[in-house]
Amino acid sequence: KNEVEQSPQNLTAQEGEFITINCSYSVGISALHWLQQHPGGGIVSLFMLSSGKKKHGRLIATINIQEKHSSLHITASHPRDSAVYICSGGSNYKLTFGKGTLLTVNP
Amino acid sequence: NAGVTQTPKFQVLKTGQSMTLQCAQDMNHEYMSWYRQDPGMGLRLIHYSVGAGITDQGEVPNGYNVSRSTTEDFPLRLLSAAPSQTSVYFCASRAGTGSSGNTIYFGEGSWLTVV
């Protein structure tokens, strides 16, 4: 069992919809990262969270340390949000990555 | 500020050949790492370094070698390429060594095919 589990694996939405991607982890972590990867492209860091909530534009990330759960929300989704979203958690030097959620936003 | 620069972007190797994937960062980050990304699997750590002269194995180190002679550079060597090493490779860096709580910066990836 992967120590970091994401759901759903695939998500298709219509432009404008509110999106939620979930991440559960079984390891103790000092921080959780949300990453974005466009098809054939590099990986970009969206958020780094150790508690609470962060917001950047239309993206919101939350974390509940007690429940070992984090969510990434996208408000007013747009086709350019189509990408793979990856959560990752760890402590000290090593991060464990989820398998990613493939998001497709149709116009 | 170039961030993390990874080369080559694409490479085809024959089984048994050796090659080096280059990685350089200009942010003076202590921590650098190499990952491979395979379909249906999360990124997996190959090797990492917490500073010049210090390297350690990750989750899938077999068949790979690394060195860290400077803060900026962290090359990954494939000693004798095998088809199982066909993958996309990412180099990453972040500031600090004792915590994972710093922003991670990734290179653009290297697509390697071993035939």
Number of helices of chain A: 0
DSSP, total strands of chain B = 11
Largest sheet of chain B: 7 strands, mixed
Element string of chain B (H = helix, E = strand):
EEEEEEEEEEE
Low-confidence stretches of chain B: none
Query: Fraction of residues of chain B in helices?
Result: under 10%
> Radius of gyration of chain B in whole Å, from Cα?
13 Å
Largest sheet of chain A: 6 strands, mixed
Q: What is the gyration radius of chain A calculated from CA atoms? A: 13 Å
Can you lay out the helices and strands and say which pair or pack?
The complex is a heterodimer of chains A (107) and B (115).
Chain A: E1 4-7, E2 10-14, E3 19-25, E4 31-37, E5 43-49, E6 52-56, E7 59-64, E8 69-74, E9 83-91, E10 94-97, E11 101-106
Parallel strand pairs in A: 2-11
Antiparallel strand pairs in A: 1-3, 3-8, 4-5, 4-9, 6-7, 7-8, 9-10, 9-11
Chain B: E1 4-7, E2 10-13, E3 19-25, E4 31-37, E5 44-51, E6 54-57, E7 64-66, E8 76-78, E9 87-94, E10 105-106, E11 110-114
Molecular structure report:
The complex is a heterodimer of chains A (107) and B (115). Chain A is mostly beta strands and 107 residues long. Chain A is built from no helices and 11 strands. Chain A has strands spanning 4-7, 10-14, 19-25, 31-37, 43-49, 52-56, 59-64, 69-74, 83-91, 94-97, 101-106. In chain A, the strands form 2 sheets. In chain A, strands 2, 4, 5, 9, 10 and 11 form a 6-stranded mixed β-sheet that branches. A 5-stranded antiparallel β-sheet of chain A has the order 1-3-8-7-6, with no helix packed on it. The radius of gyration of chain A is 13 Å and the shape is globular. The relative contact order of chain A is 0.35. In chain B, the strands form 2 sheets. In chain B, strands 2, 4, 5, 6, 9, 10 and 11 form a 7-stranded mixed β-sheet that branches. In chain B, strand 5 (44-51) and strand 6 form a beta hairpin. With 115 residues, chain B is an all-beta fold. In chain B, 0% of the residues lie in helices and 48% in strands. Classes of the chains: A mainly beta (107), B mainly beta (115). Chain A binds chain B through residues 2, 4, 29-31, 33, 35, 41-45, 48, 50, 86, 88-100, and chain B through 31, 35, 40-45, 48, 50, 56, 58, 90, 92, 97-109.
